[in-house]
Amino acid sequence: MEKLRHVISARQFDDPEYLNGLFDVANQMERDDVFRALTDPLRGRILATLFYEPSTRTRFSFEAAMQKLGGGVLTAENMRESSSATKGETIEDTIRIVSGYADAIAIRHYEQGTAEAAARISPVPVINAGDGVGEHPTQALTDVYTIRKELGRLSGLRVVLVGDLLNGRTIHSLLPLLALYKDVQVDLVSPWQLRLPLKHREYLLEKHVAFHESEKLDGLIEQADVLYITRVQKERFATVEEYDAVKDSYILDARMADRLKPEAIIMHALPRVNEISPEVDANARAAYFRQAKNGLYIRMALLKTLLA
Ligand code: CP
């Protein structure tokens, strides 16, 4: 794998050994955090978080990660309305300016490809914190790290992905990472309207990943090692009627969760709406809040790799 300069797509991470190294750094970050033993390798460095779409986990965890490493943060949680974008400034000009103030830029944008465009002209590392229906590579790294931590392995898993596979950028980034591991089997469960886009299915074929599409979750819960539920993304639909037609296609309740194998895990990038009942949270298999916390340590590992 090439030296990491920008983080734009999960497809950049094409070496499982590199991922192991990154996950080991994240593990060390967690241990140092728990034992209050973190040092300040990024003292004097600044991360700009430019968010043109809402976020809780990604922005806060990036900012916490930077501060725990001794660095500082320039933050804009609503760039779409609070920045000079409202006056017509282009994203390229914004990046040219912000890169003069910050040592790295984490950007979330509503248009696919924006992070890549920013990276092309940025003299400082750009991290894609979600680009429309494109990708969310730092979430996917968090997800694979979570699976390794929870299950102790990444090979030979059956991963059942459920919900909005059309618009779910976390899934678009997760699949190329899962494809790195041996004997991973993927079930793609969605309403036909929200089927995984062709280019991602073609990628799975190219990488010889065994996958199966279905509109029904029945019969798959018992088989899953990882049950990964996604939110149906209201903000990506043209009309409320189209959203209403599919919004509650899959709802995981406590009885369904109990049908999982004892060692299986339930994942979700969050936020959730109705797709996982709150009663499931008490199930030991519910890994989604641990998954969100892991995002902090993965982002610490990434920032240290990019900047230290
Ligand atoms: N998982 C995730 O991207 O969450 P946020 O939208 O809250 O950042």
Task: Summarize the structure in words.
The protein is an alpha/beta fold. The protein has eleven helices and nine strands. It has helices at residues 16-34, 57-68, 79-82, 91-98, 114-121, 137-151, 169-178, 198-206, 240-246, 254-257, 288-307, and strands spanning 46-51, 72-76, 104-109, 126-131, 158-162, 185-189, 210-214, 226-229, 265-267. Helix 7 (169-178) links the parallel strand 5 and strand 6 (185-189). Helix 6 (137-151) crosses helix 7 (169-178). The longest helix is centred in the C-terminal third of the chain and has 20 residues, at 288-307. The mean pLDDT is 97. Bound molecules: phosphoric acid mono(formamide)ester. Phosphoric acid mono(formamide)ester binds next to helix 2.
